[in-house]
């Protein structure tokens, strides 16, 4: 009996020591847990951040965060709020219906958003009191589809953008779709009838809705003047807007029956109006070309007096696309985003003389800018190792505000990303990106996939790219090629492929392939190629030109160009770039060589497409699949039900990655 307390005490001490050892060992185990490769199911874990807006007092940023419910196979978007000092992150909504377009009331007391929650058939504006309480619906729009809105400076009115909707009256027999427009198809929207989009004025107190614009035209991008008396907007009011892209900036008094005034007269495209702080000028971007169609173009930063006149072209000499203009607080300069050779950086342009100063650069991609009351900037930024997060752009550089991606990144070993430059057969210099697997053996030749971007007027940037990271995680070196036609290298570099598809781009892809082989990066016997949209189109062109690729995956592509006139949404491009088929059929036939010479293709090729794609319809993939199947070349066709040009169903996104990897593994490993 006398020894029991001693024995118990000794046992306690032993247990405590054992527990301590377990904690230490557990901690060491946790710290040494190896990182794993990315896998397709990680799609369920990746969140998407967007649409940030700073509160009037500058203390908070409201934004959207989209997450996937794997059980329901559904993506849902909620509202979050981040403190400017970076210390607090608060989820504001939890509705399964989703919320979007957060906007602060001018007094900062309310946060508004759009949602069709609680069984509503269409989106309405909701108000959430910052002091607490459940959100309440503000508008009660009976007809039409609300697509955009903006508060007046005094908070008493809201400018709404509402589209008319087709007749949805209940009937056992659906009504025929009657088409009488030149351009009658658009991805996601479907067949285009005579639906119009107009501006309306909503009185917050009385809930009265007044019409601002009328007619057969469409309006967008409303921006209130600082004094709240006028609204600038964008509209194409040419005789037949379906036949051109000639949008202009207009201004109208913020009252019913007001007469609108045209501010810009450029026969190209003008868009994105932003009032100067004193309300005397408007900044905007316009196309470089004055032609009424501009596939291969880039935006120029402009400033014009609020009553019109000759604009100042601040960035014309830069020869790079400029977007997202924001005035400085004193109105003497503009911040803007510049796309330049695999990056998007922030620059400042002096209004008086157009002098440009780079203010935020590096191997990264800035997607969104917002001005803080202090004069600092809010940026949405990503880099090859980090999906998009919010950052404060201050004098000392970037200060990270949100950390939503940390849980996603924690267990992953991602590919390293580097730039490289290749030479094409005709001497062109091409900028590219290379993804090396995290576990790659230094100096070893790797099975390599050329994964080609779409557009074509786009570019591969030093940003987070889930598709290339996923392929690299499967053990492949992956290359992105900024072929001619891409932006970020100047207008001439982009325009050179006009009406000459599948020529110089293929030379650039093959030049990048040669570089990878000659430098001991790629195993020449294990080369693959793939891409989506124009990347799928170029995959078809490339495998019809060169047989060195052992496997290919062509997503949402086409090859029989001569069969696409009137089938997809690009009627203006056909008419303006290639001409009518009955006048220039030889050109259409020449551009259709992957299909018409399909017997040259020896590469086993996988074709994928969305069933409801009106951008590059499924017929393009079906034709190529049928051709290769008829010829006996290994092939398969995957059609995703109910999907448009972009695959948005999370389960289908995972399926696509799994099929990519399985297909390439079959032929490259």
Give a short synopsis of this structure.
The chain is an alpha+beta fold. 19% of the residues lie in helices and 34% in strands. An eight-stranded mixed sheet has the order 31-32-34-33-35-36-37-38, sandwiched between helices. It has a four-stranded antiparallel sheet with strand order 1-2-3-4, with no helix packed on it.
Q: What does this molecule look like?
A:
This protein has an eight-stranded mixed sheet, with helices on both faces. Strands 1-2-3-4 form a four-stranded antiparallel sheet, with no helix packed on it. The radius of gyration is 28 Å and the shape is globular. The chain has 669 residues and is of the alpha+beta class. The chain has a domain at 412-668: Rossmann fold (3-Layer(aba) Sandwich). 19% of the residues lie in helices and 34% in strands. It contains eleven helices and 38 strands. Strand 19 and strand 20 (281-287) form a beta hairpin. This is Acyl-peptide hydrolase. Residues 463-669 form the Peptidase S9 prolyl oligopeptidase catalytic domain. Keywords: Acetylation, Hydrolase, Protease, Serine protease, Signal. Pfam families: PD40 (PF07676), Peptidase_S9 (PF00326). Residues 1-30 form the signal peptide.
What's the structural blueprint in terms of helices and strands?
Blueprint: H1 4-32, E1 48-54, E2 60-69, E3 74-83, E4 89-91, E5 100-104, E6 110-115, E7 124-129, E8 136-137, E9 145-151, E10 157-163, E11 185-186, E12 190-191, E13 197-203, E14 209-211, E15 219-224, E16 230-235, E17 248-253, E18 261-262, E19 270-275, E20 281-287, E21 299-305, E22 312-313, E23 322-327, E24 333-340, E25 343-350, E26 356-360, E27 365-371, E28 377-383, E29 386-394, E30 397-400, H2 406-409, E31 416-423, E32 429-436, E33 446-452, H3 466-473, E34 477-481, H4 491-495, H5 504-518, E35 522-532, H6 534-543, E36 551-555, H7 571-578, H8 581-591, H9 593-596, E37 605-610, H10 618-631, E38 635-640, H11 650-668
Parallel strand pairs: 33-34, 33-35, 35-36, 36-37, 37-38
Antiparallel strand pairs: 1-2, 2-3, 3-4, 5-6, 6-7, 7-8, 9-10, 10-13, 11-12, 13-14, 15-16, 16-17, 17-18, 19-20, 20-21, 21-22, 23-24, 24-25, 25-26, 27-28, 28-29, 29-30, 31-32, 32-34
């Amino acid at each position: 009996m006398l020894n029991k307390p001693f024995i118990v005490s000794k046992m306690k001490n032993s247990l405590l020591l054992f527990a301590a050892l377990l904690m230490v060992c557990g901690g060491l185990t946790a710290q040494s847990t190896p990182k794993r490769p990315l896998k397709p199911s990680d799609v369920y874990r990746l969140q998407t951040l967007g649409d940030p807006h700073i509160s009037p007092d500058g203390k908070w940023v409201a934004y959207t965060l989209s997450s996937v419910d794997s059980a329901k196979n559904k993506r849902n978007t909620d509202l979050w709020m981040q403190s400017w000092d970076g210390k607090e992150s608060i989820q504001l909504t939890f509705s399964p219906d989703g919320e979007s377009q957060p906007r602060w009331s001018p007094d900062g007391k309310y946060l508004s958003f759009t949602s069709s929650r609680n069984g509503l058939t269409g989106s309405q504006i909701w108000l959430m009191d910052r002091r607490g309480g459940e959100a309440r619906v503000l508008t009660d729009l009976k007809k039409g589809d609300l697509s955009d809105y903006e508060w007046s400076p005094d908070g008493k009115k809201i400018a709404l953008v509402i589209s008319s909707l087709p007749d949805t009256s209940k009937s056992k027999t659906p009504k025929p779709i009657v088409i009488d427009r030149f351009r009658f198809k658009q991805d996601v929207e479907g067949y285009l009838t005579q639906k119009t989009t107009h501006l309306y004025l909503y009185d917050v107190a009385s809930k009265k809705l007044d019409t601002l614009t009328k007619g057969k035209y469409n309006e967008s991008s409303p921006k209130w003047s600082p004094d709240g008396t006028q609204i600038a907007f964008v509209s194409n009011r040419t005789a037949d807007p379906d036949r051109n892209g000639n949008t202009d900036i207009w201004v109208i008094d913020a009252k019913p029956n007001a007469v609108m005034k045209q501010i810009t007269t450029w026969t190209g495209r003008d868009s994105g109006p932003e009032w100067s702080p004193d309300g005397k000028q408007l900044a905007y971007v316009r196309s470089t070309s004055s032609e009424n169609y501009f596939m291969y173009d880039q935006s120029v930063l402009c400033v014009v007096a609020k009553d019109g006149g000759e604009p100042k072209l601040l960035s014309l000499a830069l020869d790079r696309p400029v977007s997202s203009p924001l005035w400085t607080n004193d109105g003497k300069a503009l911040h803007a985003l510049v796309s330049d050779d695999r990056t998007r950086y922030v620059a400042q342009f002096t209004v008086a003389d157009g002098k440009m100063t780079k203010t935020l650069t590096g191997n990264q991609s800035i997607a969104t800018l917002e001005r803080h009351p202090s004069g600092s900037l809010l940026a949405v930024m990503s880099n090859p190792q980090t999906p998009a997060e919010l950052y404060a752009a201050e004098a000392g550089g970037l200060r990270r505000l949100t950390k939503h991606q940390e849980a996603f990144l924690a267990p992953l070993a991602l590919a390293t990303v580097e730039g490289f430059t290749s030479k094409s057969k005709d001497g062109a210099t091409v900028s590219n990106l290379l993804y090396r697997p995290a576990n790659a053996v230094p100096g070893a030749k790797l099975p390599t996939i050329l994964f080609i971007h779409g557009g074509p007027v786009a570019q591969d940037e030093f940003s987070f790219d889930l598709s290339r990271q996923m392929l690299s995680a499967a053990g492949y070196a992956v290359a992105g090629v900024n072929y001619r036609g891409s932006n970020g290298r100047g207008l001439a570099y982009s325009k050179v492929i006009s009406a000459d598809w599948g020529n110089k781009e293929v030379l650039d892809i093959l030049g990048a392939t040669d570089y990878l082989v000659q430098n001991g990066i790629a195993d020449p016997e294990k080369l693959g190629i793939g891409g989506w949209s124009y990347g799928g189109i170029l995959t078809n062109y490339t495998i019809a030109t060169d047989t060195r690729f052992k496997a290919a995956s062509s997503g949402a592509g086409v090859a029989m160009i001569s069969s696409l006139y009137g089938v997809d949404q690009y009627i203006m491009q056909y008419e303006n770039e290639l001409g009518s088929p009955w006048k220039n059929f030889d050109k259409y036939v020449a551009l259709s060589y992957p299909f018409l010479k399909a017997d040259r293709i020896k590469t086993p090729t996988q074709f994928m497409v969305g069933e409801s794609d009106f951008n590059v319809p499924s017929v393009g993939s079906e034709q190529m699949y049928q051709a290769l199947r008829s010829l006996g070349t290994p092939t398969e066709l995957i059609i995703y039900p109910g999907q448009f040009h972009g695959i948005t169903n999370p389960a289908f996104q995972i399926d696509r990655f799994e099929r990519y990897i399985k297909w390439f593994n079959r032929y490259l490993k």
